[in-house]
Amino acid sequence: MRKAAPTFTPLIPINRRSGRPLHRQIYDAFRATIVARNLSSGQQLPSTRTLASELGISRIPVLNAYAQLLAEGYFETRVGAGTFVSSSLPEHTSPPEDRTASPVKINSRTRRISRSSLLLPAYKRAPWVRHHGAFSLSHPALDAFPFKVWANLVARHSRNPLISSLEYGNPMGLKQLREVIAMYLRASRAVRCEPQQILIVSGSQQALDLSSRVLLNVGDAVWIEEPGYWLARHVLLSAGCRIVPVPVDPEGLDVAAGIKRCRNARAAFVAPSHQFPLGVTMSASRRLRLLDWARQAGAWVIEDDYDSEYRYGSKPVASLQGLDDSSRVIYIGTFSKVLFPSLRVGYLVLPPDLVDHFLSMRHAMDVSQPYLYQAVLADFIAEGHFSRHIRRMRTLYGERRGILVESLQREFGSVLKIVGDMAGMHLAVFLPKGANDREIANRAAQESLWLWPLSSTYIAKSARHGFILGFGSTTASEIPAAVRHMRAILAPSHASRGHSGVV
């Protein structure tokens, strides 16, 4: 048995003004001293009474600190002898300070991760992403949201909640919410559905991820729009799918081109009512041809209907799902754009024979959706607040869209071609040949102008350059000045390339 080293009292600085309790200060000091090997294994420690006296404090904090160090194995007690540094601790340990000063060398070859994670591009936050201000993308007019109404509904459901609301919920989602969503979709989107076909999820991204898990295998070919929604691309990459980019023209996805490139694709991901980012609406002939292809190929069509409530100059376009007579369409909707992004509530409308498969997968992923916001949203829709909000926002966004188009035409004339301005909360502009949208967007971000480069939504290297301009969170009074700011930023880039007449 080791011979106990002499008893020494380590330096324990006590700060009575600190927010940390005294027992924690004592615990931290002993632990750091032991890990740094300034107290050796088997070293005898002062008694709690002695240490308390030396520190000039009550004995209680010392007792609490010793108890914690004993429980964690740093201290040990010997009957009749006292308290010691644990004799089972290794003689040599690496102090935390050393790890910071000299990082541990890691052999990446021995650290195995999944192939799907390696297929995804590294997460990198571009300077124009997720900022509030002129032209920021996917941001609704949060200042116009009826927060008082929403807060009252939250309070209603938070006050004296039912026991059932605190338990695990139905993996399909709250019944009341599915019922009001079904009524809304039948009336406003011509979706053919019943509540039992609706699955509540955490936004459209989870809906797409769930669809890929249920419908697709590694190596399956999937059509996606080119240009298109980059996060959809990431989900399909992580599922190990082979992505087939299909060009988009003024009529939407070019079905003939898709068939030519890969007739036997397993699925097609489309946004037929308001394509992202070009904003075009798929023509009736293209919709019917897409459904014909899906039926003949035994393929699935995943319809993303993310902000179709907002159209200017015409009524909302009916869903693709409403035309489907062979149950080949999986319909995705979300409240992120029409209410607020952090709500994280979306839904799937499923063919009846797929419901059980999606339900099993959903339950395996995260059991069920949280209760509170489902209940609040169900009341928000059932009591008419949702419809009133949509009507107000349609007028508000229509005004902002009109001012943006007018300002762009006034400042740029025919130099910038405007597309996709008849729906949604964004439009796109094409830059003249030779301009680099990423360079300009990086420069604009330094001046708090958020120009999303159009080229980033393409897979092909021969991408069209331009910008996606969001107007949902930019007020009508801010838009003209923001467009003038954009004009000033574009002027140097075009002048250096000899583009006369741009500004």
Give the SSE layout.
Elements lengths: L21 H14 L12 H8 L3 H13 L3 E4 L3 E4 L10 H6 L13 H5 L27 H12 L16 H14 L9 E4 L1 H13 L5 E6 L3 H9 L3 E8 L2 E2 L1 H7 L5 E4 L13 H14 L2 E5 L24 E6 L11 E4 L5 H12 L4 H12 L2 H28 L4 E3 L6 E5 L6 H9 L6 E2 L12 E5 L8 H17 L8
Parallel strand pairs: 4-5, 4-7, 7-8, 8-9
Antiparallel strand pairs: 1-2, 3-10, 5-6, 9-10, 11-12, 12-14, 13-14
> How would you write the strand order of the largest sheet?
3-10-9-8-7-4-5-6
Strand-and-helix sequence, N→C?
Answer: HHHEEHHHHEHEHEEHEHEEEHHHEEHEEH
Count of distinct strands: 14
CATH superfamily of the largest domain: Type I PLP-dependent aspartate aminotransferase-like (Major domain)
The end-to-end span amounts to 87 Å
Helical coverage, percent range: 25-40%
Structural class, judged by helices and strands?
Answer: alpha/beta
**Weakly predicted, low-confidence segments:** 95-102, 495-502
Q: What form results from the Cα inertia axes?
A: elongated
CATH architecture of the largest domain: 3-Layer(aba) Sandwich
CATH class division of the largest domain: Alpha Beta
Described by strand count, sense and barrel closure, the largest sheet is: 8 strands, mixed
- CATH fold annotation of the largest domain: Aspartate Aminotransferase, domain 2
Question: What is the average of the pLDDT values?
Answer: 88
Q: Tell me the radius of gyration.
A: 31 Å
Summed up, the domain count is 3
SS element count, helices = 16
Strand content: 5-15%
